[in-house]
Write a structure and sequence with these properties.
mainly alpha, Arc Repressor Mutant, subunit A, single chain, transcription regulation, HTH marR-type domain-containing protein, DNA-binding transcription factor activity, HTH-GbsR_regulator, transcription
């Protein structure tokens, strides 16, 4: 397990496998650089805040790469920046609400794409039946998907408050 004190930092082989697996997942499925997924994995495991240099050292990557990715993650709400008394460096922790921000990001992106589509569709001429059909189908899909994301966010918020709707299944836990 990862600790924040420089002398105690170590990653177990299991930690390393987790970090690498998350890096590959985020690279393949989420469009993040692999280092970004690895950084998130490390911060999820860390029991104390980590400085940029420590993250770079543990992952054996350049501090510049860590800095670039950490700024993006901070903007997206995946990590939080904190200061420690008597230390001028910036430290980072995995945000307790990291993935909840994904609902807002998705809704914002879907709203934007719908506006782009509707704006262009309004300018189609009477002879653009094929294009109109494509735009209508695309708008219908993104509008439906936006509703699914909105509903999911509402279910998640209700679940967090302890009032989860009965239609939302509880996660399964494997017993080892």
């Amino acid at each position: 397990m990862v600790d924040g004190d420089k002398d105690e930092l170590s990653l177990t082989p299991e930690d390393q496998r987790f970090i690498e697996s998350l890096g590959l997942h985020f690279e393949d499925k989420a469009g993040f650089p692999r280092i970004g997924g690895r950084m998130l994995g490390l911060l999820m495991l860390a029991s104390k805040p980590l400085a940029l240099g420590t993250i770079a050292e543990l992952l054996k990557v350049s501090p510049a790469s860590v800095s670039t990715n950490i700024r993006s993650f901070h903007t997206k709400g995946l990590v939080e920046e904190i200061g420690l008394p008597g230390d001028r460096r910036h430290y980072y922790v995995f945000s307790d609400t990291a993935f909840e921000h994904q609902f807002d990001d998705a809704l914002e992106g879907l709203t934007e794409i719908l506006q782009i589509m509707r704006t262009r569709m309004e300018r189609l001429g009477p002879d653009d039946a094929l294009r109109m059909q494509r735009f209508l189908a695309t708008i219908e899909f993104f509008d439906f998907f936006r509703g699914v994301v909105q509903s999911s966010r509402e279910h998640w918020n209700a679940r967090k408050k302890g009032a989860a709707p009965s239609s939302v299944p509880e996660p399964t836990r494997s017993v080892s």
